[in-house]
């Protein structure tokens, strides 16, 4: 089940310039910066009420973000929804006819398991499912 809007992912060419711009726009500093080696991206997160803004910049020519920015301008890259059980949600979406870009959830930024829904099956929008990873010993 989709719980809430987790974050908007914004593709940017210059992470430092975008971070400065969003710090001014939102009137606050980001709460987290992270490199996600598996995706070849650097990320910066801002908390905005119950949701977040994630800035993403590719760190190599093979990065999906770098390739995205070769074709499109900087801006909204994906919409992410928090889910309680990512595997159950993936199964439900497959049964509904959605095409998933991942067979299994993978480690994403901000301590999340993630899976993406192909934009061709979601009206041109890349949708990300996110499930928080429980820390060992934390219920």
UniProtKB/TrEMBL annotation:
The keyword Magnesium does not apply. Keywords: Isomerase, Metal-binding. Residues 4-132 form the VOC domain. The keyword Isomerase applies. GO terms for biological process: L-methylmalonyl-CoA metabolic process. InterPro entries: Glyas_Bleomycin-R_OHBP_Dase (IPR029068), MeMalonyl-CoA_epimerase (IPR017515), MMCE/EMCE_epimerase (IPR051785), VOC_core (IPR037523). One of its GO terms (molecular function) is methylmalonyl-CoA epimerase activity. Its EC number is 5.1.99.1. Belongs to the methylmalonyl-CoA epimerase family. PANTHER family: METHYLMALONYL-COA EPIMERASE (PTHR43048), METHYLMALONYL-COA EPIMERASE, MITOCHONDRIAL (PTHR43048:SF3). This is Methylmalonyl-CoA epimerase. It comes from Hymenobacter fodinae.
